[in-house]
Amino acid sequence: MTRTPLFNRVAIIGLGLIGSSIVRGAMALGLATELVTTDASADVRQRAAELGLGHRIAGSSAEAANDADLVIACVPVGACGAVAKEIAPHLKAGAIVSDVGSVKTAVLKDMAQYLPDTVDFIPAHPVAGTEHSGPDAGFAELFVNRWCILTPSEQAAPEAVERLKAFWQALGANVETMTAEHHDLVLAITSHLPHLIAYTIVGTAEELEGVTESEVLKFSAGGFRDFTRIAASDPTMWRDVFLNNKDAVLEMLGEFQEDLSKLTRAIRRGDGEALFDHFTRTRAIRRGIVNIGQDAAGADFGRPHPHLPPKDDGKS
Length: 316
Ligand code: NAP
Known about the structure:
Layout: E1 7-13, H1 17-29, E2 32-38, H2 42-51, E3 56-57, H3 61-65, E4 70-73, H4 80-87, E5 96-99, H5 105-112, E6 120-121, E7 124-127, E8 147-150, H6 158-170, E9 174-177, H7 180-207, H8 213-218, H9 224-231, H10 235-244, H11 246-269, H12 272-291
Parallel strand pairs: 1-2, 1-4, 2-3, 4-5, 5-6, 8-9
Antiparallel strand pairs: 7-8
NADP nicotinamide-adenine-dinucleotide phosphate binds at residues 13-19, 39-41, 44, 61, 74-77, 79, 82-83, 100-102, 125-126, 129, 133-134, 234, 237.
């Protein structure tokens, strides 16, 4: 269903999972009169043309940003500064500039240094994704019922924040505004640390002596395979996340190590009560996530089990 466009010209720079999902959603909903897209990679631009990702595919970020009303950099966190530097001389006065990076303080600093005062700079982070990357991985519904966090710069006009909020809401997202520093702390525990733990466990299993790799794979349904989905996430993206959210991740890692020590002690001492109490509290967190609609209640992450009778997917 198309609607009245929210922007005249929108430029999407970077056509991977997130950029191509925005383009697919914005095209399907008619959120821009003209969608101009680009990517640093000629192969990706070629594939984007085949997939129809945009009304026009520009040869460079500068060309894409030219005369755009909204520019969104959908590139790895470490590339955001370079994109801002390239597009800065081509931005028209009154344009909104944003990004989708998973870290906000570093992106705010890296991009703001190049952007002119005549634009409204509003970093954003859609908290939605999969372990896949590239232009084929995107889909229009990726942001539906997910949260998008805006961390506006001090100079950004409230009207511009409202316009960007309307764009994300049209894509199906719920929008919340907070400071970049607070975003980085919250995401360190809800996203960055879980990824670090998954990367660690999967790496540890690979290097184990005494347990063969084929045993790890064969018996992975015991829990391991759920970590492997997260540990399959894009290496460039996650390298940049840890390099750019160092302080918050280290702070959360400290808390985590203390809690791990407590559980280690409980196991060593045979303190069943401490273990039971802890596991009861964590089970409530999972139920909370399901209850607010951020995951389905189906058993085993909703994996199909055709040999079993269908389960009710309603809220527990
Ligand atoms: P992706 O699928 O790897 O796509 C990124 C694209 O940007 C690639 O095609 C890449 O080209 C291109 N690119 C890199 N540097 C560029 C530059 N300087 N100019 C133009 N294009 C450039 O990554 P993604 O998953 O969409 O992630 C993009 C951003 O979204 C990241 O900042 C990430 O933190 C954030 N994010 C990701 C998720 C997620 O789950 N994946 C969720 C929320 C937010 P090359 O391949 O040639 O380098």
